[in-house]
Amino acid sequence: MTPHSPGTGQINTLIWIGFFAALLVVVAINLGLLGAVRRWRGGRGKSAAAVAGKPGLQLRVAGALSGFAVILFVLGIIFTSNALSTPKTTSAGLTSLNGKDLEGEPLVIKATGQQWLWRYNYPNGSFSYWKLVIPVDTAIELKLESTDVVHTWNVPDLAPKVDAVPGKTTHVLFRADAEGEFWGTASTLSGQSYAPMRTTVFVVSPERFEEFIKEQQQGIKAGNEAAEKIETEKLEEEEAASGKSSEEGEESGSEGEEAEESAEGEEAEAEEPAEEEGEETAEAGGAPNAEAGKEVFAEECSVCHGATGHGGNGGPDLTTMPKAKEQAGAEEQVTNGGGGMPAFKGTLSEEEIKNVAAYVVEDIVGGK
Q1: Which residue, 191, 177, 218, is CA-closest to 114?
Q2: Residues 146, 173: contact at Cβ < 8 Å?
Q3: What region does 282 belong to: left with phi over 0, alpha with psi -120 to 50, or beta?
Q4: CB-count burial class (<10 Å; 0-12, 13-18, 19+) for 8
Q5: Are the CB atoms for 196 and 273 separated by under 8 Å?
Q6: Which end of the chain offers a freer environment for a tag, N or C, measured as fewer CB atoms within 10 Å?
Q7: Residue 73 neighbours by CB under 8 Å, 6+ apart
Q8: Which residues lie below 8 Å from residue 311, measured CB to CB, with a gap of 6+?
Q9: Whose CA is closest to 128, among 23, 4, 250, 214?
């Protein structure tokens, strides 16, 4: 561990104190044994002397050891209390955000764990996945939650590890004293892919932090606007097509109602078997169409995951997500959402969900 926060620095010092205390005890015991053997050992023509302790010797030894233990106990309380105390933002840290003075209070960021990814929500409404960006010399309070099972947030250089428990909010407070990149790993078994569940903390200057969350906010807004534009254009195209069909129907009606009725009758007779066949196919369940899913992905998913699915405005790289590697998992994630991703059940049809899942599995993860 290389401590880069007051709390981890205190714990690191306490570990070294414990190490040297244990080393001192071991050395003292072994030196005492060697001295006793040398002084009272037997030899040629000489018998080993019987050892008898002087009056009060046991009391003096017991007193020394008790005093040593008390010193260690007091040091443990002092350093542990200091490590758990709420850190303060220094003059070089972030003192205001969004035009509001923090008044010495910690900067609050929400961390949500899910199988198997961390999402971080910042005070201005922006968010990021797996990558946490914080300002240097600033007190940080992480509010940890879980959407499914127990996950452990663990970045040993910055803070003690803390569990994110479903239905409960836990807290961890720390302050990073140096800019840089710090890695964290999962330390609690949370399912088959817990091992790749990583997080990275980027400690930057207060100015760069404010720029970052504004960039995230703008990117998310732009993505939402692009999605709304695509949806609007789609609706306009459908309305235009509907209007054109209506006009063509009126023209056909002016040519003769009898011909139309006859044609409709013949068409209805021809369509009946086709409809029955379509119903049977639907009941049997058609194969997912990745090509059709590509269009759905462009309209609904590229906003967050990027045009190629390799990460975008807050959304993760789909090639790193376990559920995106097989059809059932991808369908379940799109249907029910989770970990910051909205549920598309009711927004997309079952066919669209199957198609976009097939596109993700076959084209994005499959590398077509």
Answers
A1: 191
A2: no
A3: alpha
A4: buried
A5: no
A6: C
A7: none
A8: 305, 317
A9: 214
Token code pair at residue 206: 């207060």
Q: What are residue 107's phi and psi, to 5 degrees? A: -80, 120
* Amino acid occupying residue 361: V
- Tokens 């059709």 correspond to 292
Query: What is the full DSSP assignment across 122-144?
Result: -TTS-EEESEEEEETT-EEEEEE
313 near 215, Cβ under 8 Å?
A: no
CA–CA separation, 172 and 164 (whole Å): 10
Q: What is the full per-residue pLDDT of the chain (368 aa) written as tens digits?
A: 566 666 676 777 778 888 888 998 899 888 888 887 777 666 666 666 666 667 777 788 888 888 888 988 888 888 777 767 677 888 888 878 877 777 778 889 999 988 888 899 998 888 888 889 999 888 889 999 988 889 988 888 888 888 889 989 998 888 888 888 888 888 888 777 777 788 889 999 989 988 888 888 887 777 777 777 787 888 888 888 877 666 665 665 555 555 455 555 555 554 554 444 444 433 335 788 988 988 888 888 876 787 788 776 567 778 888 888 899 988 988 888 776 677 788 788 999 999 999 999 988 888 76
Instruction: Please answer whether residues 198 and 183 qualify as being in contact, where contact means their C-beta atoms are separated by less than 8 angstroms.
Output: yes
Q: Give dist(CA 19, CA 7) in Å, integer.
A: 19
Strand partners, 163: 152
Model-level pTM? 0.53
Please classify residue 38 by burial: count the beta carbons closer than 10 Å to its beta carbon, then call 0-12 exposed, 13-18 middle and 19+ buried: exposed
218: helix, coil or strand?
A: helix
